[in-house]
Amino acid sequence: MRPAPLRRVLLIQAIEKSDGDGELLSSDLRADATREAARPLSRDSSVAEQDRFFAQRAAHLTDHLVSHRPALAPLIPVPHRFRYFAIALLLGAAILGWSTQALGQEKLVNILSFPLLGILAWNLIVYLTELIRAAGSLKKRDQQTDDAEAGGLLTRAAESLEKLPAAFRKRDRHPDVPASLRQALTDFQRRWRRLVEPITVQRIRAALHLAAALLAGAAVAGMYAEGAANEYRAYWESTFFTPGALQALLGTLFGPASLLSGIEVPDVAPLHRTATTPEVVGENAARWIHLYALTIGLFVVLPRLVLGTWHTIVARRREIAIDPRQLTGTGLYFDRILAEALGTALRTGAVAYCHQLSPTAEGSLQRNLERDLGVPVTLAWKSTLKLGDEEDAPRELITEAAETLPAHFVLCFDFSVTPEQETHGELIREMRKALNEQETETHFHVCLDAEGFDETRRNLPDFAKRREDRFEAWRSVAGPARENVAVFPPIES
After folding, report:
1. In this structure, how many other beta carbons lie within 10 angstroms of the beta carbon of residue 66?
2. Which residues have CB under 8 Å from 366's CB, separation 6+?
3. Considering only 144-153, 301-310, 355-364, 476-485, which range has the smallest mean pLDDT?
4. What are phi and psi of 362, to 5 degrees?
5. Which of 412, 419, 431, 430 is nearest to 471 (CA)?
6. Cβ within 8 Å of residue 272, ≥6 positions away
7. What's the alpha-carbon Rg for the chain, to the nearest Å?
8. What is Dmax (Cα atoms) for the chain?
């Protein structure tokens, strides 16, 4: 999904998640947007067609939001801070390279003191770093994790480029901004950064490589400009090198440039200035300048352009391939919307504890869920849990990856059984813990089959109170999951 529609989709997803009361987006508005965007959608639609559906739906809802809350407008477009960063970086590299005075202030050039030698050494270190990183990524088979390593300098730079606009961050703290919107913006920013930071890191790397190529190229251009207006003489002096050793070193260093250009590496012996031969003025530096320029082009400009292009291609491929459904748990959000748009059944996991539901009870449970969720559901039953399975069974049941878990998971009990903390309560806690460990957005439900209870007690004068008391007992045992406890058939029937 492209960045522009992706940003809208993530923003709407965050708002719908936090706006349970429909304060920002009413349920009718969401349903209308779904119906409008789903008109060209079919049940055998491709991933690309579904992406367009989500993008159009998000566009309808963001347009509504911006019309009623203009302060949200700066959040909709994709930030372009990186573009300004890259322009400034490349411009600075060109200026710095041109002004390096690679030939020096004097008209005598010590062939061992070229600043370009330092450029060659630095780039060799960079290439070794790239090789080490590439080898590490091959082992991990997960370049995105490697790129977004916590605490990395490039990751921190990417974070700063992807922050919310400063003006909006101040407005976000205003007391008139609903708490649900503040929470939604926090979630949105987290998800957005999680998706785009690896891409931004790749782009920063590409910009740095291109800036290095431009720096070296500008330095060479400045060197030729200086040489065109002045005659530079080449010599050398050294405490450690002998003429033979230096000749061998320069022959190796300039060998590829010499082979490519046909310019032989000059004999360095006549250019050696010592304390006893201070009158040596060297030779015209043109051949040395050509050899240095070609060497820089071969070992700095060309590799850096290749690396910059490669990181640009990688960033572009990742950007195009972004799928918001790959974020932990978000697939459930998209599954629910698709089910609503197409009228298809939403897969719902279900397991019963020490209880076998009758076909009538299963039908009642399904209808109850469909009424509460607003979409058709299909129950995917797991093997019935037995007494003693309370601790280990939940982790055995929740073995799927977070992205493939069902949108909802139902744990069924026999309502007629008196609930106990040591068994029923323990199973509920372990089930919730297993789901939380997966960092999934699967909605957990505790459903109580009251079919047997109703049949045996319906004619009792205090039936309604008995049912209510038993329901409260189950809610008490469920602890933090008490709000997710429901009876079927409904308690009011």
Report:
1. 15
2. 377, 379
3. 144-153
4. -65, -40
5. 419
6. 235, 236, 237, 243, 280
7. 34
8. 123
- Write the pLDDT tens digit of every residue in 175-196: 567 888 888 888 888 888 888 8
pLDDT one-digit tens code per residue, 274-321:
888 888 888 998 999 999 999 999 999 999 999 999 999 999 998 888
Q: What is the pLDDT of residues 146-180, one digit of tens each?
A: 444 433 666 666 666 656 555 455 554 555 678 88
Distance, in Å, from the CA atom of 408 to the CA atom of 349, rounded to the nearest integer, reads 6
Give the C-alpha separation, 398 to 382, whole Å.
Answer: 11
Whether the pLDDT of residue 376 is over 90: the answer is: no
pTM score: 0.69
Does residue 431 contact residue 382 with C-beta atoms inside 8 Å?
Answer: no
| β-strand partners of 448 | 413, 487
Contacts of 233 (CB under 8 A, 6+ apart): 107, 108, 109, 281, 282, 283, 284, 285
Q: Is the four-CA dihedral 40, 44, 45, 50 of positive or negative sign?
A: positive
Q: How far apart are CA 58 and CA 76, in angstroms?
A: 11
Break the chain down into helix, strand, coil percent, rounded to 5: 65, 10, 30
Instruction: Round to whole Å and give the CA distance between 98 and 284.
Output: 22
